[in-house]
């Protein structure tokens, strides 16, 4: 299907395709489920402009972490699953020598050009390949514990930390971005299915979609 | 059954994939030593006890792991990265607090 307006929307220096949410047909803002006694979780799609995956060659982890700190300004901690989130930007380790870096603005990949050199590692722009879903509220841990067999309690899963796990073969990277708030990154092609399951699981506690 | 991934910490066995006997030595790809290839493909110690195994944390960090498992009790005696070199190896809780 040709979109005749497309060439006019594109400027020579900026030709990023318009991004559509895979959740759009099932994204229903408002209160749902058992909310008469209170809304205990809030679900939203955060739609960050940049979602990057960075991987260090063996022995280059420290240099990659330094590069992420320099480009993002985030004090990314070293150590398995270490991470940090400051609202607009976030970074966390999800595997040995591998990191997810997120920015609410587009174009973060370009900022890494020349910093993450081929000698250090690789950069993969997944901005169009992942969907970011946020769950927040006093029952966020409760709802997520129904999906993932990991410990969501604050001492085991500290603020900023990242975890790699999966739900029914849907890979998920989870970052704790608040005391009772988690950001979940799933494959875009599975995002609608995961979102619907998350809504069903949230019905019992009452949920609001923002 | 829990396996403690050196990166992710304790996880359910469902997140892991068995990759085979960890005692095998693969001949050089160009090797024409048929006995060596035969041993690589078929010979197994099959112990009733501690066994060296290769696993992958396929449902998590996807790292390949060298694991010692007791085949009688399923006790996991040790886990380590199959390939060394990563400095941030030991499991810490992580975070920026
Ligand atoms: Zn792992």
UniProtKB/TrEMBL annotation, chain B:
Highest classification ranks of the organism: Bacteria, Pseudomonadati, Pseudomonadota, Alphaproteobacteria, Hyphomicrobiales
GO terms classed as biological process: tetrahydrofolate metabolic process
Species of the source: Mesorhizobium tamadayense
Protein name in UniProt: Sarcosine oxidase subunit delta family protein
An annotated Gene Ontology molecular function: sarcosine oxidase activity
Any Pfam family: SoxD
């Amino acid at each position: 299907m040709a979109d005749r307006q497309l060439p006019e929307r594109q400027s020579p220096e900026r030709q990023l395709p318009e991004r559509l949410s895979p959740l759009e047909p099932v994204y229903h803002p408002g209160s749902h489920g058992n909310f008469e006694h209170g809304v205990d979780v809030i679900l939203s799609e955060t739609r960050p402009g940049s979602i990057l995956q960075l991987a260090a060659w063996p022995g280059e982890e420290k240099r990659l972490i330094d590069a992420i700190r320099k480009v993002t300004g985030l004090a990314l901690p070293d150590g398995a699953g270490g991470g940090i989130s400051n609202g607009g930007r976030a970074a966390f380790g999800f595997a040995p020598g591998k990191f997810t870096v997120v920015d609410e603005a587009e174009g973060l990949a370009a900022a890494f050009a020349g910093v993450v050199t081929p000698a250090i590692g690789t950069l993969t722009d997944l901005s169009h390949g992942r969907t970011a879903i946020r769950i927040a509220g006093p029952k966020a841990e409760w709802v997520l514990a129904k999906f993932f067999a990991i410990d969501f309690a604050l001492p085991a899963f500290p603020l900023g930390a990242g975890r790699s796990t999966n739900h029914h073969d849907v890979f998920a990277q989870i970052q704790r971005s608040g005391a009772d708030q988690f950001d979940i990154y799933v494959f875009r092609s599975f995002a609608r299915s995961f979102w619907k399951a998350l809504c069903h699981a949230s019905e019992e506690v009452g949920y609001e979609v923002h | 059954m829990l396996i403690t991934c050196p990166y992710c910490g304790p996880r359910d066995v469902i997140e892991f994939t068995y990759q085979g006997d960890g005692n095998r030595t693969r001949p050089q790809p160009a090797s024409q030593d048929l006995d060596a290839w035969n041993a690589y493909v078929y010979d197994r110690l099959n112990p009733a006890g501690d066994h060296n195994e290769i696993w992958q944390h396929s449902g998590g960090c996807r790292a390949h792991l060298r694991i010692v498992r007791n085949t009688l009790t399923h006790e996991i005696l040790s886990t380590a990265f199959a390939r060394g070199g990563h400095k941030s190896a030991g499991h810490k809780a992580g975070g920026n607090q």
